[in-house]
Amino acid sequence: MRNATETRRTETKEDIQQQEIHGPVSQLKTSFIQTAVIILIVVLFSGLYLHFAWKKYEDMAVKEALQLARSLESIFHTEHIEALSGGSEDLEKPEYHMAKNSLIKLVETTQSVQYAYFLAERDGEVVFLVDSIPEDFPDHAASGMIYENAEEVHWEAFRTGNALLTDRISNRNKTWISALVPQKDSKGDRVIALFAIDYSASEWYKRLWMHMIPDVVIVLCVIILSLSLLFGWSRHTKLKSLASQIAYDKALYRSIFEQAPIGIAIISGKGHATEAKLGSTNINPMYQKILGRNKEELLNITWPEITHPDDVQADLELFEKFQKGEIQSYSMEKRFIHPDGSIVWTDMTISPFLGTPFKDMMHLCLLVDITKRKLAEAALYESERSKSVLLSHIPGMAYRCKNDKDWTMLFVSDGCLELTGYPPESLLYNKDISFEEIITSEYRPLLRGEWVRILAQRLPFKYEYEITTAGGKRKWVLEMGQGVFDEEGNVEALEGIILDISDRKEMENNLRYMNEHDSWTGLYNRRYLEKVLNNDLKGPFTEKRALVSVNMSTVQSLTTTHGFHYARDLIKQIAKVLMTLCSDKHSLFSSFENRFIFYIKEYENKEDLLAFCNSVIDSLESILSTERIGGGIGVLELTEDTGNNITEILDHILVASERAIIELKDKEFGICFYDAELEEQIIREQEIQRELARVVSREDDGGLYLQFQPILDVKTNRISDFEALARLKSDTLGMVSPLEFIPIAERTKLIIPIGEKVLRQALDFMNRLTDQGYRDVKVFVNVSVVQLLHKDFCRNLFNIIREKKVQPKNIGIEITETVFSSDYEEINRILGELKQLGIYIAIDDFGTGYSSLARERELNVNGLKIDKYFIDALMNIHPSKAITSDIISIAKKFDQDSIAEGVEHEFQKQFLISAGCYKIQGYLISKPLDEDKALEFIEGHEDARRNN
Hints:
By secondary structure, this protein is an alpha+beta fold. The protein has five domains: 53-210, PAS domain (Beta-Lactamase, 2-Layer Sandwich), CATH 3.30.450.20; 260-376, PAS domain (Beta-Lactamase, 2-Layer Sandwich), CATH 3.30.450; 394-507, PAS domain (Beta-Lactamase, 2-Layer Sandwich), CATH 3.30.450; 517-673, Reverse transcriptase/Diguanylate cyclase domain (Alpha-Beta Plaits); 709-947, Alpha-Beta Barrel (TIM Barrel). Helices cover 48% and strands 22% of the residues. The protein has 31 helices and 31 strands. A hairpin with a 2-residue loop joins strand 7 (263-268) and strand 8.
């Protein structure tokens, strides 16, 4: 803001100076132009006046001459002239002599006429008939002599018959003007001759000028009067201009004095000059502003009183020399004290005040406020000090160097020693070593190329590279700088700082390692595998490539029984075993938790891949055989048709490995190739997923419906329960097995809304049972771990129970034994909450899961549903060797019911009754029935029971 104000003030001063210089000159130019215009106008009008006067007198002379010529012509008889033929025979005619004598007398008696004659037209020529010169004179024109001075005007007179006056005609040093009067025949029809009289041209114009003398006098008087008036006006204008200039100078002085950006005061001795002597121009406003005091205060104090004590003595010494005339003026930086005690720094100049009429000595005091400059100088000093401290503490060095091949250093900060091992003076001007030599060789061309690019675009420079210190140690550095250019755009130097980033680089390397490796096994992770595949799949397929996924998700089941750390250590052992199979053609990656991927190159055929998979299985059997767990191996061959969607490829290999686990059956390890058949299965699963989504979105449940399988209580021979079994019928897929759509629903979390629809349909069926009088019959609904762990499961269940107005004691929930491997504590807590409400909790497929007997007693369950596997075993082994009775005994010890599933034979039923299992379910009783059929079945069974 201050710079802008000072700039405006400077411009104002320059404008004032320009006005002072050009103002009078401009006025003089204006006055000169006005004077010249007035003179031109006076001369123009005078000339016009004289011109018209001349024309007037000239017309009068013409009229007089023509009138005289007509009068003279009238005295001649037409018949006399008509008798002349224009030849020598005319000399014998009396008419000729009579005309001749008349002409001679006319010239003699008429003073202004010099020559008189008659002209006639003969044979296309103008000839003399008779003239006024006697015949004995040499100038005599004989009758019939051609008139050589004939002009167009003579012919015009003949043609028109009008009297005319010729212009000046010159011949033999004689100049005249002729008046021509045509003479017609006696009938007045034809011009027979021209009567002409000649006037002396000099006499003609002399008479004209005599007439013009009064007009010329008038014009001269007018011009003289005009010049006199113009001179008076010019003097008046000059005086007025001088008065304006004086007023302007006074206003300019006042403006400068009042608005000057410096303080101005007139000093008398040690005090300020009073207004009595100088009017109001003794102290300007800026002077008062700088000192912080008004004019009245300043007139009542001396300047030593308001001077800072430290500056008084120096000022007085200089002032004394000034008063004695030893110095003409002086300047000094001086501090003044404001009324509030604050200090203002000024640049003070004392100079004599010349041209005053006063006897006492006065002088000018000029003050410039330099407080901000002083503060800036102090700040700059502090900044330089801070800069020095900063440069000495940065982890590197600051520099200025030439843009040459050696980066010749012009300035190097003290940090050079710690950064490079060389003292700064060793690098200056390449005294001992150039900076080019310190840069590690492989980075030199790269650094040079980056500087060339940056300087061409005038951008900031930023680059990371390595240097070799004096001790031979390599360091990573970050250089940030810029080019210094001259006015022509040439590079003068390079400036910047070079920082030691070795620690940061080490951290980056660590982060890069962590980003690309699995922290537990140390193997390259999925992210790094994606990068490798992305690079390889872009190039041509010159060799065979495949991915082999080792899926060890089954290890998760050991967490429940042995704990988290045990499972993690086992994964680490598996990784070590798999690493033994690595080679330059077999790379191992940790793709996900408990999953590994081999990237195989240059194999021969599919048999090679199978052989490799078997070697993986053989290697893992040694550590997994005791754990009684296996895994799945998925294989995906990469071809040009595979595409380059890395995420999709890795999803496919994961699906293949999971499919291998699903299809394990009796084997510990399964191998599954991702092929067209598997892709068709995946497509079908996607179609099923879309169908499930459609079911969820519809209010009428779409193709989702329930079937109910009765459960018989053999003690009472009554149907005590029904198990609700979900079914799906699609318009496009037909009937879809629960074994297909339930896992998909669980994986996609669609099981949550589908589970609510199943529950609502099951409770509607329960209400129908109640309406028909079967108030103690339970309806069991299967619930997955995904539903159970959903945060709103209990709340939604209770809301549906209230909505359907059913008794919780009539509801049974079946959960598989494997759900407890997910989150045992939380699941058991939820089951306890449901059990406390009165809902019956049963473990489905008991005996095929991984829960331990130690925890079985703690489970919040009411009963165990014995898996069909153990029921089918009764048909193949001796009953005494079957563990089915042991499961029933365990349930009794835990005070839990036992329900047998998959009972199809009477023998199985009798064995179960003898073992103490009194609830059975299976085709021996009934297959799953539609809702109406189930109601008919229970009613029929009750009728049969009553009849027996």
